[in-house]
Amino acid sequence: MSKNVVLDGRRARGDASRRIVLQSATDLASVEGLDGLTIGRLAEASGSSKSSIATLFQSKEGLQLATVAAAREIFTAQIVEPARQQPRGVRRVAALLRNALAYSKDRIFTGGCFFAATAADVDSKSGPVSDAVRAALTDWYGYIEVQLRHAVDAGELDADVEVLAFELVALNEEANSRSLLLDDERPYALAAAAMGGRLRAAGADDAVLALLNL
């Protein structure tokens, strides 16, 4: 057996181990926050050894950064990529909002939205982990604004883009927070109705608003 085959096999096993551990890490952080995500705590939750996790991620910060990156990939796959089936503008905005509500409602992570859960850990801190969470959220807020800008430029909506984006994101985040607090799915329906009302007031038609149905 060649040396390259052996190395490729080890790399594949390492990648598989990394994915399995990160599944536990993202879920754990959604409940306990990034501050609670340590090599020891993850070993306890995942059933992996501390030494294997330390080998994979080198340090607590390395683990936290890898966890944020993994959560961002899941967020994109669950929310952003499916919405790209809709044309840019108001239809894509509605699809993004619907997907974001479903991602929290369906508990892709036990603690609801990973980034809503971890933002509280980093909102007043500095450093690479805080920067990674902020970058993910800033990109998400910016993407909503970009799609709303397309909608306004195309004559689909008449609204202050920055204000409307803030309101829509806030409704999504409040639905996530209140559902977790009260152990109740009703906030998602309320948020979808409120989002529909804001988009209707800005000029969206019923065909677009139907995309918000959960």
Radius of gyration (Å): 20 Å
What is CATH's topology name of the domain at 65-212?
A: Tetracycline Repressor, domain 2
Query: Low-confidence spans: pLDDT under 50, at least 5 residues?
Result: 3-9
Residue-averaged pLDDT, rounded?
A: 90
Summarize the structure.
The protein has 214 residues and is mainly alpha-helical.
Q: What does this entry look like structurally?
A:
- The chain is mostly helical and 214 residues long.
- The chain has a domain of 148 residues: Tetracycline Repressor, domain 2 (Orthogonal Bundle), CATH 1.10.357.10.
- Helices cover 76% and strands 0% of the residues.
- The longest helix has 30 residues.
- It starts with a helix and ends in a 5-residue tail after the last helix.
- 36% of the residues are buried.
Give keywords.
mainly alpha
How would you summarize the topology of this molecule?
Elements: H1 3-32, H2 39-46, H3 50-57, H4 60-83, H5 90-105, H6 114-122, H7 128-153, H8 161-182, H9 186-201, H10 206-209
Helix pairs in contact: 1-4, 1-6, 3-4, 4-5, 4-7, 5-7, 5-8, 5-9, 6-7, 7-8, 8-9
